[in-house]
Amino acid sequence: MSGRRRGPSTTRQEILDAAREVFADRGVDGTTREIAQRAGVDPAMIAHYFGSKGGLFEAVTALQVDPADVIAPVLDADAADAARELLLALVRTWDAHAPVLTTLVRSAMRSKTLAGQMRTFILERAVGPVVRRFSPDDRVETRAALLASQITGLMLTRYVLRWEPLASADPAWVADHVGPTVQGYLTGPLPED
Amino acid sequence: MSGRRRGPSTTRQEILDAAREVFADRGVDGTTREIAQRAGVDPAMIAHYFGSKGGLFEAVTALQVDPADVIAPVLDADAADAARELLLALVRTWDAHAPVLTTLVRSAMRSKTLAGQMRTFILERAVGPVVRRFSPDDRVETRAALLASQITGLMLTRYVLRWEPLASADPAWVADHVGPTVQGYLTGPLPED
Questions:
Q1: pLDDT tens digits along B147-188
Q2: If phi over 0 gives left and psi between -120 and 50 gives alpha, with beta otherwise, what is residue A184?
Q3: Contact between B144 and B123 (Cβ < 8 Å)
Q4: Is A172's Cβ below 8 Å from some Cβ in B?
Q5: What residue of B is the nearest CA neighbor of A183?
Q6: Looking at the partner chain, which of A118, A142, A161 has a beta carbon nearest the beta carbon of B161?
Q7: Distance CA A30, CA B84 (A)
Q8: Which domain holds residue B29?
Q9: Domain named HTH tetR-type: which ranges (chains A, B) (predicted)?
């Protein structure tokens, strides 16, 4: 009979697969009950493996991309090329994972907790390391916020609003057109605070 | 007995007031049934006055601000000051109407229809007129998309992600720090497409 029992790693993976589908369809409105149904497991298994819907959502999105891998080549770039390398890395990554990342952004809009997690995530894992690496001064927080304003807006305009010509442009076009802004926020002179 | 009947303009206004509260609480998840209950009217009255929840949502948000009023002083500015005037006008308006505008942005994230309406609204009523007024060439669509990428990201970072120091900065700080980017997208040289 043991052949009919699924092992823990299979159950965990089936929950993750189901959650990815449900979150992609319905964002954070997707319920653990729907996810459990789709995975064919008892809802208690979700609590067992992931603690809560929030924990499950984090696991689903964390699986997609390790920001350290995305950022690594940027940190090795010359300062003068940093913005271009950052934009190429981000846009290529987003393009490859657009549905889940769009869901993540959409969901972050709806929940203060998720918005806070998203801010922390972007800051600590993506924008923060790049700003600390290339900032010519100690105004790291201002540069990070400005960088975030352009990068999140790019994501929003390209993937959620689907605003042309930005929505269909290739990554190099985006790097060419938005690069000077990002480079300015990263290494350029800033006005007095 | 006619004193007990509410006239059409009162009913319409009561529906709008109720809808503003429900949408502020729950975004587009708020149902017409909840809105009708809160307004103390039959749900058929919502269909009668606004056609649908989408129509009601438009009426609620349209009531807040007339973009033509916001944009008017920008269109009168010198080209060299256009970005600064645009940012001051937008940030002051957003600050004064932050809850409803945040709800609008959040909701636009969740629905392709609303995202399309938001894109059309921003383009036709705010970004479009400014770009057409100040663009030194015929690359109006590219300039509008780039402008949208910075402006929507500013809104997102300041009001939804609440990212400091951008979230608490006064409008002049925002105009100082983001102005050069917006000015570049509006009137600066662009790379070849």
A1: 999 999 999 899 888 899 999 999 999 999 999 999 999 999
A2: alpha
A3: yes
A4: no
A5: B181
A6: A118
A7: 42
A8: 2-62
A9: 9-68
